[in-house]
């Protein structure tokens, strides 16, 4: 449904040329929810705006549903209003002089895809039903909460039944609890409608919970594309490992094809083919993959340590443990009864370490 090839965009700034997007390639299947995830300045919003037609790339090609809407080599540039897209911005972008019904109806009454008068009311009410605002259609949008205004913006984007829905950090202005609720609603709504969605965020929890596919971006490039589970469980680069989720990092030196020497001992793990013996590498392991034993150094694969801090998070407890001169984060269940200052053994399960050169 969305096909991006060799997309590039350079900005000339007072500090020099900035390569915002550097020849990226991406395919989003029909009805798929694809998330562009990355830090500020990585190129994710420039990519989204290029798909929307709000940004003119310097080179490459963008195809939406079989229609080429931008091509550098062919000099094609289809304007935004002819791309059959719906867009939800970070700001709610609702008109304060209108009520809820009027805002949602606007694309049908004044937009390019105008509908016959007798179709407007049922389509608007259907969109409001979808976002659970059917009873508020006569209310001024300024009387709504932030979450309700964002739902209005979503209903407006969906009412014209676009083939592609684009969302640029639409939940970032909401408080944490409301953001979590809206994530669940967004997923249900987009799946029920079956619209192809491209979503931009810097929030990894949003990306992992919403996306069918996650694309991690950095410095204008896509570093990894995969399912949320693949990206979280098997990060392909050190940057992805650092950016997605919490991770422990330990410096080491390659001993052999499947062994690395480190401050916490010899680690058995697959070593990348380009890492010869003696090369320095970075070992990585998730806090939830570690565990603690009550006796220091008790059990095979454990090393002695001291608990430096304990953070209770409700459903889990995050410990910081010093072991062999290395500070390690260990995530256990919320009812774990280890205390600060206590000696404990840190257990490293086999098969959980990853190695980055």
SSE topology sketch:
Layout: E1 2-13, E2 16-28, E3 33-37, H1 44-52, E4 59-64, E5 67-71, E6 76-77, E7 85-88, H2 100-109, H3 117-130, H4 146-158, E8 164-168, H5 176-193, E9 196-201, H6 204-210, E10 213-218, E11 221-226, H7 228-233, H8 238-243, E12 248-256, E13 259-262, E14 265-268, E15 280-285, E16 291-293, E17 302-312, E18 316-323, E19 326-333, E20 343-347, E21 354-356
Parallel strand pairs: 3-9, 3-10, 7-8, 8-9
Antiparallel strand pairs: 1-2, 1-4, 4-5, 5-6, 10-11, 12-13, 12-15, 13-14, 15-21, 16-20, 17-18, 17-20, 18-19
Helix pairs in contact: 2-3, 2-4, 3-4
Largest sheet: 6 strands, mixed
Count up the helices.
8
Shape: globular
| Order of strands in the sheet with most strands | 7-8-9-3-10-11
* H and E order: EEEHEEEEHHHEHEHEEHHEEEEEEEEEE
The percent range for helix content is: 10-25%
Radius of gyration: 25 Å
The mean pLDDT is 92
Termini separation:
36 Å
Low-confidence stretches: none
DSSP summary, beta strand count = 21
Structural class: alpha+beta
User: Beta-strand percentage?
Assistant: 35-45%
């Amino acid at each position: 449904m969305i096909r991006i090839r060799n997309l590039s965009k350079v900005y000339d700034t007072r500090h020099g040329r900035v390569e915002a997007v550097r020849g990226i390639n991406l395919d989003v299947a029909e009805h798929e929810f694809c998330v562009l995830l990355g830090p500020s300045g990585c190129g994710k919003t420039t990519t989204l705006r290029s798909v929307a037609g709000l940004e003119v790339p310097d080179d490459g090609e963008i195809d939406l549903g079989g229609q080429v809407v931008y091509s550098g080599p062919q000099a094609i540039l289809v304007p935004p209003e002819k791309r059959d897209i719906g867009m939800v911005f970070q700001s709610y972008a609702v008109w304060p002089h209108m009520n809820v019904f009027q805002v949602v109806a606007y694309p049908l009454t004044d937009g390019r895809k105008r509908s016959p008068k007798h179709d407007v009311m049922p389509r608007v009410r259907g969109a409001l039903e979808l976002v659970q605002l059917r009873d508020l259609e006569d209310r001024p949008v300024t009387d709504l909460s932030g979450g309700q205004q964002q739902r209005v913006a979503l209903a407006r984007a969906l009412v014209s039944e676009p083939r592609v829905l684009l969302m640029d950090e639409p939940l970032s202005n909401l408080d944490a609890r409301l953001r979590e609720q809206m994530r669940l609603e967004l997923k249900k709504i987009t799946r029920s409608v079956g619209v192809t969605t491209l979503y931009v965020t810097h929030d990894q929890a949003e990306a992992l919970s919403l996306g069918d596919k996650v694309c991690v971006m950095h410095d204008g490039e896509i570093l990894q594309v995969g399912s949320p589970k693949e990206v979280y469980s098997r990060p392909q680069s050190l940057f992805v490992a650092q950016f997605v989720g919490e991770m422990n990092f330990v410096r080491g030196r390659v001993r052999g094809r499947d062994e690395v020497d480190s401050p916490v001992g010899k680690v058995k793990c697959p070593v990348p083919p380009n890492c010869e013996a003696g090369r320095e590498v970075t070992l990585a392991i998730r806090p939830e993959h570690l565990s603690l034993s009550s006796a220091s150094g008790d059990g095979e694969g454990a090393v002695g340590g001291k608990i430096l801090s304990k953070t209770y998070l409700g459903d889990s407890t995050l410990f910081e443990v010093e072991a062999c001169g290395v500070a390690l984060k260990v995530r256990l269940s919320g009812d774990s009864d280890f205390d600060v200052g206590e000696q404990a053994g840190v257990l490293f399960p086999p098969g959980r370490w990853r190695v980055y050169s």
